[in-house]
Amino acid sequence: MNRRDYLKNTTAVLGFSLSSASMSALFISCAKEAKLDWKPVFLKPNQGEIVAEIAETILPKTKTPGAKELGVPQFIDKMVNETKDEKGKEEFLKGLEEFDKRCVDKYGKPFVALTPKEKTEYLMIHEKESPRSGMNLWGINLEPNAQKPTFYKSIKGLTLFGFYTSEKIGKEILAYQDIPGEYLPCILLNGQNAWNE
Amino acid sequence: MTDPQEVHTKLGRGKCLNRNRCSRGCPYGAYFSSNSATSPAANNTGNLAVRPNSIVKEIMYDEATKTATGVRVIDSETNEVHEFKAKIIFSRASTLSTTQLLLNSKSARFPNGLGNDSGELGHNLMDHHYHVGAMGDFEGMEDQYYQGRKPAGLFIPKYVNIDEKSKNPNFLRGFDYQGAGAGRANWGRGGDEHSIGADFKESLYKPGGWGMGLMGFGEVLPYHENKVTLHESLVDKWGIPQLVFDASIKDNELKMRKQIMADAAEMLESTGFKNVRTFDNAGGLGVGVHEMGTARMGKDPKTSVLNGNNQVHGINNLFITDGACMTSSNCVNPSITYMALTARAVDFAVSEMNKKNI
Fold first, then answer.
1. pLDDT in tens, A63-75
2. DSSP string, B97-110
3. Across the interface, which of B186, B191, B215 has its CB nearest the CB of A157?
């Protein structure tokens, strides 16, 4: 039973199983093309900019890197492109469109134009509406009828996944052991960070 | 493997280094597999020949001698058909491939598949049912941690229906638990925390609270109506008829699942776990990937395909020792049982050959 730990965290945090399909593009109303320093494979530049701002608001740069610095927006772009089927892609883009439309309705400006404080405030509204993840053990979804993740919940999951499994965080911030050797069932925590897993 | 013995190290196998990368193939051979253990051991005898790219299409039968004479093989690279003759044949193709092979080996003597006088070939398909149990959180012990990614979990052996005292009135047979041993949550918990920002990010660098899950594995009864048959017209690229599955878990399993769930929750709660959640997501037969039966052993050739020595009834030189031979499924992982049955059948076959009975 060693298959159990495979994608142990990701099924829970993503709320979807991975599959592949072709892309389909809806787009978000936008005035001018955003200038990105990276080239999205799936998203349009304006969409990529929103995704980047959401990711950076969830995991901002502190004394350790933020989501943008670690290429999390690129990761999300790629993940949506390569792991969601056509329907999933449509849903993602529709969710992104609604996310920004609601922002305009509330603040009179799109998400990327909000102040940092407003961005946090707006995301916290979505946080409070997020359903809990379905139960999960060994990467197995045990609650197939659990409420589907919302757009915000999906993008948060992808943000965490891209960030905490990045080489930088995994090797330099989290406690990294390539080959642990012995298994020690009981040790004192002693302030260390979590094991990279 | 935690404590390799000479028999292991001789094959180049070493101890587990707790990487938990077993599913990628263990370079130390600490995780048992044909690649790490049995194939090298077989190779060391000097008597092993491996013919790759070989799709066994049928087992040939000679009515005059009442023996299996060999196998007809399609070369998957050249599509050429080859025949290999043998004095004795063991089929260990895996449960359903073995049965597919027997069903596809038709002759005037065995029009419904080789060794299928009983009509049981393809029937009594079993699996284990799981994805049922409970999980919970444990408060406290926040200064405690562990080191190393131990790939194994805990195991709670079957404790119901083992004697009169433990008899459960609601279902036959029983279940065990395979536990995802206790552990601390990692960054994945952040998905459900209604929080974002700098402190949130930093907090997920630290281990989260303790939790554990108990996953039940239950026995599936051998139902005659759970079966596989050959499709009448659909064939694979080598012209071999495809298998059709007609099987499900039934009332006995569904009742057992209720008990699995309730007991798991009770154990966690009485151990002090909080927020205990139960789950029951049966899915279909096949979820357990422990397919068994379809060419079962038995004393009576009228109701079984193999005898007690894993010989096909009436064909003394043909042995089936993979999961197809199973008569019941118990509730534990079955591979080691297949290996033990194989060793036993091989020992029997050698003794029969020495006695000139085969």
1. 999 999 999 999 9
2. HHHHHHHT---SS-
3. B191
Structure-block tokens of residue B7: 């028999």
What residues have CB less than 8 Å from B335, skipping those under 6 apart?
Answer: none
> pLDDT per residue over B172-182, tens digit each?
999 999 876 78
Phi, psi dihedral angles at A167 (to 5 degrees): -60, -40
Q: What is the pLDDT of residues B203-238, one digit of tens each?
A: 999 999 999 999 999 999 999 999 999 999 999 999
Task: Give me the pLDDT at residue A35, please.
Answer: 66
User: B 182-201 residues with CB below 8 A of A?
Assistant: 184, 186-188, 190-192, 194-198, 200-201
Chain B neighbors of A15, CB-CB under 8 A: 191
Q: Counting beta carbons within 10 angstroms of the beta carbon of residue A57, is it exposed (0 to 12), middle (13 to 18) or buried (19 or more)?
A: buried
Q: Tell me chain B's radius of gyration from C-alpha atoms.
A: 24
- What's the complex ipTM? 0.86
Q: In DSSP terms, which residues pair with B208 in a beta bridge? A: none
Place of tokens 């911030």: A173
* pLDDT range class, residue B134, cuts 50, 70, 90: very high
Q: Closest Cα to residue B254, out of B293, B292, B283, B222?
A: B283
Q: Extract the runs of DSSP E, i.e. beta strands, from chain B.
A: 54-62, 67-75, 81-85, 89-91, 128-129, 132-138, 144-147, 154-156, 175-184, 210-219, 227-235, 241-246, 274-280, 311-312, 315-320
CB contact under 8 Å between B191 and A186, yes or no, is no
Q: Can you tell me the distance from the alpha carbon of A119 to that of A111, in angstroms, rounded to the nearest whole number?
A: 7
What would the pLDDT profile of A133-183 be if each residue is shown by its tens digit? 888 887 788 888 888 899 999 999 999 999 999 999 999 999 999 999 999
The identity of residue B103, as a single letter, is: L
What's the gap in Å between the CA of A37 and the closest CA on chain B? 23
B19/A contact by beta carbon, under 8 A: yes
Q: Enter the DSSP assignment of A192.
A: P
* Amino acid code (one letter) for B286: G
Rounded Cα distance between B111 and B102, Å, is 11
pLDDT category of residue A11 using cuts at 50, 70 and 90: low
Q: Is residue B255 less than 8 Å (CB to CB) from chain A?
A: no
Closest Cα in chain B, distance from residue A9 (Å): 5
Q: How far apart are the first and last CA of chain A?
A: 18
